[in-house]
Amino acid sequence: PEQAARMKKLQEQEKRQKVEFRKRMEQEVSQFIQATGEPRRRFQPMNKIERSILHDVAEVAGLTSFSFGDDEDSRYVMVFKKEFAPSDEELEAYRRGEEWDPARAEERRRLRELAAQQEEAELESGPAPLGPPNDYKDKYRHLIGSDAAKAAARTMEANKAYGCVPVANKRDTRSIEEAMNEIRAKKRLR
Fold this sequence. Notes:
By secondary structure, the protein is mostly helical. It is built from seven helices and three strands, in the order αβαββααααα. The protein folds into two domains: 8-100, CATH 3.30.1370.50; 136-189, no CATH class. Helix 1 (2-34) crosses helix 2 (48-60). The longest helix has 33 residues, at 2-34. The two termini are 48 Å apart.
């Protein structure tokens, strides 16, 4: 009895802490929503339960939220206003543990575009890309012939009787109750 009482007290305490934590997060999130010059906010690292509470609060407030960080102790939540939702590149940067720098990302994107254009120009000017040295069908021609597959495809027809139940199988005129009683009687005999 004493242990049960202690457990109950602990559970109530945990529940109270969760409720308090949720209220605190709701206040912080509403402050964040009202802060005009702040498109995103990074929260302190927190445990799994606290992160799930914060994700829930953010969702209710109409915000986008993501968790970042590798190990359980250092995982943290970032909350974004909908109009500043992060791009895939931005999310990748946070996952790698880097700060997001839009200017640097734009520079990277420009370099990638330039490289793609150069590659395209080389492909146009250079020799045509070579295909495989031989056609795989040639390898098996002695087995399948040259037009066996086409002929087989043409002759394929659906089985008209597929899915049909013979009339003899449909002739059960018993009611459900009668059928159930018969099954029960057979079980009793066993």
